[in-house]
Amino acid sequence: MSVQLLIDSLTQLDAGYVDLLQLMEEKKQTILSRNFDELVRILNRESKLLKQIDEQEQRLLDAAQQFLKEKGIKSQLELTVSEILRLVFDPEEKSQLEQIRQQLGQRLTELKRVNELNQALIQQSLSFIDFSLNLMIGNEEDEVTYSPPTTQDKKAASRRMFDTRA
User: Fold this and answer.
1) Can you spell out the DSSP letters for the chain?
2) pTM metric for this prediction
């Protein structure tokens, strides 16, 4: 019975990852379209979803501990699904558990890929913004002529609207 609870927990966790993957795809499109208001809304939804996934992972750990307790193993170790598979002897349950394990692995790989792509897109956007700001307000390297130190400081201060080094 506890194996089914474990399988159900893994299935619910996978469903949460599917939702997260869809949200990350939406985030990618929002970043590409530069719709920052929508990006903020997506980030709020993502935060709530991550909290739900965290709660589901805790339920999964509880289900795994219950399974181990039913098998007579009194360990507080957090075993992987592969290690738990060795303790399941029913072929049907073992097959279901193996299938959901593989599905979760693929889902996590896809999540990692999309997350890395979103990070690269955000970094590229920030670089573009930095480049645009440097074009608008000028760069310290633009002043190559010599001027007395007191007037040079005033020029640099007046040309800069805000500190781009922050």
Assistant:
1) -HHHHHHHHHHHHHHHHHHHHHHHHHHHHHHHHT-HHHHHHHHHHHHHHHHHHHHHHHHHHHHHHHHHHHTT--------HHHHHTT---HHHHHHHHHHHHHHHHHHHHHHHHHHHHHHHHHHHHHHHHHHHHHHH--GGG--S---HHHHHHHHHHH-SS-TT-
2) 0.73
